[in-house]
Amino acid sequence: MRYTLTTLKKLEELFSEMDYSIRYEKGNFQSGYCIVENRRIAVVNKFFDTEARINCLLEILTKVEINPDDLSEKSRELIEKWKRDNENK
User: Cα–Cα distance between 27 and 12 in angstroms, integer?
Assistant: First the structure.
């Protein structure tokens, strides 16, 4: 996966389709992000660059439940590509 603003926007759209709100704020996050489960909010360190933001969002994806039926075709393709990339590592 390429670490570009376009990829970041696609991930943000994916989270939006999953009814998650992403906020970029400052805070004392040990892992660089915080998930507020009951409100479906992901808070990412605002001082991170694009690559770190993408990595945080991808890590969050491993921790949340994803229902592919609720996602658009583009988002499903993005998740499949990400899974294939992770299998090759």
Answer: 20
Predicted TM-score (pTM) of this structure: 0.86
Residue 47 DSSP symbol = T
Q: Total structural domains in the chain?
A: 1
Report the distance separating Cα 4 and Cα 1, nearest Å: 9
Is residue 10, in this structure, part of any structural domain at all? yes
Q: Is residue 68 part of a domain?
A: yes
Dump pLDDT digits (tens) for 21-55: 999 998 777 778 888 878 889 999 999 999 999 99
Q: Is residue 87 part of a domain?
A: no
State the residue range of the domain holding 15: 5-82
Cβ neighbours, 10 Å, residue 18: 17
- 53-69 pLDDT per residue, tens: 999 999 999 888 888 89
